[in-house]
Amino acid sequence: MVQTPTTSEAETLLLELPKTLGLYVTQEQFLALSVANRDLKLERNAQGELIVNPPTGWETGRFNSSISGELYLWWRNSGETGLAFDSSTGFILPNGATRSPDASWVSQQRWDSLTTEQKGTFANICPDFVVELRSSSDRIEPLQTKMKEYMDNGARLGWLLDPQNRRVEIYQPEIEVKILENPVELFGEKVLPGFVLNLRRVWN
Hints:
Blueprint: H1 27-36, E1 41-44, E2 50-53, H2 58-78, E3 83-85, E4 91-92, E5 98-99, E6 103-106, H3 108-112, E7 129-133, H4 140-152, E8 157-162, E9 167-172, E10 175-181, E11 185-187, E12 196-198, H5 200-203
Parallel strand pairs: 7-8
Antiparallel strand pairs: 1-2, 3-6, 4-5, 6-7, 8-9, 9-10, 11-12
């Protein structure tokens, strides 16, 4: 005799949040959400608002891979200390925001100054160098705001890459943003000595 289950499975419903309504989480809640949603790129702004970024398309993923790969090769071959990170890494900035640059680097001296607790799942530090890559669905203004946030929180050099328009914005603390139209190469300057990003490998 087959018995009919007396309990029913809960139905999954989709909740659409209006753009005027934000979802706010604590750092602890953000960590739990990140662990439970590893396929999503989650961020949290300084006010605690949750920002959900869907997985990137193949083209943006290829761009990201090229940039992170070039940064890693520079780190491996230059003899420079420090740590290079890809787009899956989150950092808790001094203002409380949790951000995930598309590529980043932290100097060894600043990394070693962190306690074990500060190096937790999301390190409590703003990278020295950050890259943000604009995808075809991204509006430029939020990315520009994010780049300024990095500079205000300790970054020394930042690149905002716009592949659709082959345009690069270079950010440095207390210096006016430099805009380059269709550049061939970008240089790491004093922050990343000897690092050169060949943009033909990124654009093409």
